[in-house]
């Protein structure tokens, strides 16, 4: 009888306690894991601790919602970037589609390499070559026309290695970070070296980030009337390069406020992380370190794409969060 | 007895009906006037009719909230701009504050005119002179330092004619439009020919428009380390002129979407209104016509500041809404 009573006592205790612990607001974070595809450990905890420290009103590090600005690099941080930037593949596809209309391209060695699928020669032209391909294929049309071309490409083009649509090669753990931050009153921004016009047509659907929260590199545009209707024409002239020192400048020009959280994966993001770390408010700086040669790619100091060298040293020296993709992420893609 | 019953019937009818008519969602607009300082008439009705047409889900003109983008010029549309742009007064005040440190300015005729309070000579230098004063006084310091100078100025500087703080010379009827649109799911943006860095420090408090929803003219900035801390230095080099054809370009570069509502007051806003009117969604284009020489200023086709000539013709031809400040607004300032 005593055993039955003791058993009943435990049953009652369990059932009466559980709802209470679920109700308490302080335990709401324990209730559901906000980052389920992140393995437990110091890295995951550093993100959660930061969010809790700045969102609890009684915390000494509390940050009001209007100042909860979180910025994310795109290539290599939110989606993959190997064997070369996906926007380069888009430009290559555009060159191939447009080549029949451009006999004059026969003299152009870079474009001939593109048409011959000689990607090593294409890459040997470096950043300048990439810019030339972007100018050639992104300019000379209206912004609406370009946007439609991107929309058509993003729902059909597939990655040569994984066979996935490029838009499926977004990192599931990072989608969780975006959701988690927004659920806690953060405004999430993309700050990409890639082209803003290449990103905006799909970032809302894929990342939940609307067009007006995307900062990127851009070419100039001009307003003109065509058949009595106003259009914006994309010009073959650089407007802004949103990389390295350009990232804090872009953040300043577009957001007008210093972020409190920044996520990147390469030396091109270092200045953005430094700028964020200099905030007088508590800040979180995170580097995604590509360490998983099986599920993704492993690269850092020697890579031509997404080189992470100085940034890694500074992250270690400053105690920033460095995500080890291989050990910290349960899975890469959805 | 019959009379008492009839009376009671009416009392019951009144008391039972009133709460019902207040509950009905269709009558919620009648209940409180969203634009109380606007006189009744065609102009006020055009704004209300537009908002109702695009926000009622069953309406053929319904626009989803993400596409409810409303853009506002600032000078002459949200606040006054006479006898000259308030930012010019700010630049003049800066020249006077900085002159003792700059003996080399003695050779500069424009600056000497500023120091002699010879405003006609200052204005005779035109747009180019205004830009020169802005470069001279807005560059060469960190963005944080500049922001603090603007914050100090905006809470102290007073208009020579009205004696009001400049930030009190915002149009009460337009503040109501901003609130009304936001209450109906619109995102409100400033698209100003004025300097974005001059606007951002105070637009949130004065207009309820946060820094990242302000588009304006800008000078370039550079990222550098000072004493181990990252700063952005304002450079004496134009980055972007957000006027005339520049306004649709700025909207495209920052928002990435075409607006459905645009408010302006000068020919400098015409392209922004044309661009908005070309939206395939229902749109609202509004010109504020300065017609009140007693309570404000009366000017249009011949004015050097806020010239409204081609824009007025096009507004009439296209049937856009033209606000007659004298007859449409019950009051100008709060």
End-to-end separation of chain A in angstroms reads 52 Å
The greatest interface here is: A-B, 34 and 34 residues
Task: Assign the CATH architecture of the largest domain in chain A.
Answer: 3-Layer(aba) Sandwich
Number of helices of chain A: 14
Q: What can be said about the biggest beta sheet of chain A?
A: 7 strands, mixed
* Oligomer type: homodimer
Mean residue pLDDT of chain A: 92
**Secondary-structure element order of chain A, as H and E?**
HHHEHHHHHHEHEEHEHEHEH
β-strand percent of chain A reads: 15-25%
Architecture blueprint of SSEs:
2 copies of one chain form a homodimer.
Chain A: H1 2-23, H2 28-31, H3 42-55, E1 69-72, H4 86-98, H5 109-115, H6 119-124, H7 126-138, H8 143-154, H9 172-183, E2 187-195, H10 196-207, E3 214-226, E4 229-240, H11 246-254, E5 261-264, H12 270-277, E6 284-289, H13 310-318, E7 321-324, H14 325-328
Helix pairs in contact in A: 4-7, 8-10
Summarize the structure in words.
The structure is a homodimer of 334-residue chains. Chain A has 334 residues and is of the alpha/beta class. Chain A folds into two domains: 191 residues, 3-Layer(aba) Sandwich (Rossmann fold); 53 residues, no CATH class. Chain A contains 14 helices and seven strands. In chain A, strands 4-3-2-1-5-6-7 form a seven-stranded mixed β-sheet, sandwiched between helices. In chain A, helix 4 crosses helix 7 and helix 8 packs across helix 10. The radius of gyration of chain A is 23 Å and the shape is globular. At the A-B interface, helix 10, strand 3, strand 4, helix 11 and helix 12 of A face helix 10, strand 3, strand 4, helix 11 and helix 12 of B.
